[in-house]
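PROTEIN DESIGN WORKSHEET
SECTION A - STRUCTURE
LENGTH: 265
TOKENS:
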């Protein structure tokens, strides 16, 4: 049984003071929820301030990027060890904005993911096709190439620990959401690919998030699909109310459901 996850990608928004304030409000409202893994990913300078606000809750901290070397002459880069010491448990890797603006490739994504796992950080690895690729009927070939390349440095042992995010580029920040059926089709393809490259067992345990204009009013329909295990949320994660509603939208309808055991910081 795969546990739902909602991860908020705050991108280059919120100063450390603003981020700490938002994190405090989120932790105050959903910090004791254990049915859903909740992750918030502020900018690097805000990590420590946010961690201080969430460390006693079940909300986890994530970063938005890393570099695979442990230390050295890499001006402007941040290592896995630095992220771990700042309280991170997760890291987003290969977001389409990094692929398009900062030259991220499947190879660099894969190296970063392997480095994250080596230091016990869970990578949330993003893939997704552009609008013109969808219109040309290339979704399957684009996703297959991205998945194979982005997982190239991973192995049978660590594959089950990762989280994948399917984020169609045309749906990010545009207000256009993939239909639940469209998303499920690609998630099913991703699961099958992981099953072929690694093992069926790992593929069945693997969490695949959907990202692209997720809002409180579409989360339930999306996660009702077989292969959707939660969401990576951009714009709506910057607002306490909508983020909290998205999280609570993933809770089972039955109020008497038993609490699951959460992991500890
Ligand atoms: C994202 O940036 O990962 C994202 C999904 O953004 P939005 O929710 O704003 O579309």
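SECTION B - SEQUENCE
RESIDUE ASSIGNMENT:
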């Amino acid at each position: 049984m795969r546990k739902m996850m909602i991860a908020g990608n705050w991108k280059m928004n919120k100063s450390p003071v603003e981020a700490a304030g938002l994190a405090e409000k989120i932790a105050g409202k959903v910090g004791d929820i254990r049915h859903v893994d909740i992750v918030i990913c502020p900018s690097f300078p805000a990590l420590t301030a946010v961690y201080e606000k969430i460390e006693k809750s079940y909300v986890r901290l994530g970063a938005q990027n890393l570099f695979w070397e442990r230390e050295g002459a890499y001006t402007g880069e941040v290592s896995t060890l630095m992220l771990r010491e700042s309280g991170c448990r997760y890291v987003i890797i290969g977001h389409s904005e990094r692929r398009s603006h900062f030259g991220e490739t499947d190879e660099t994504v894969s190296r970063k993911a392997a480095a994250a796992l080596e230091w016990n950080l869970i990578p949330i690895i993003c893939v997704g096709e552009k609008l013109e690729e969808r219109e040309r009927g290339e979704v399957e070939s684009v996703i297959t190439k991205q998945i194979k390349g982005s997982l190239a440095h991973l192995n049978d042992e660590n594959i089950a620990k990762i989280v994948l995010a399917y984020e169609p580029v045309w749906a990010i920040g545009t207000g256009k959401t993939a239909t639940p059926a469209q998303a499920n089709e690609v998630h099913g393809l991703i699961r099958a690919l992981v099953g072929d490259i690694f093992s069926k067992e790992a593929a069945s345990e693997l969490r695949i998030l959907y990202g692209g204009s997720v809002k409180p009013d579409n989360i339930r329909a999306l996660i009702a699909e077989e292969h959707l295990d939660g969401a990576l949320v951009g714009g709506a994660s910057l607002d306490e109310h909508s983020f909290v509603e998205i999280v609570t939208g993933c809770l089972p309808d039955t109020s008497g459901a038993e609490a699951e055991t959460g992991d500890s910081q």
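SECTION C - NOTES
The pocket of phosphoenolpyruvate is lined by residues 9, 167, 172-173, 211-214, 232-236 (CB under 6 Å).
The chain is about 40% helix and 15% strand.
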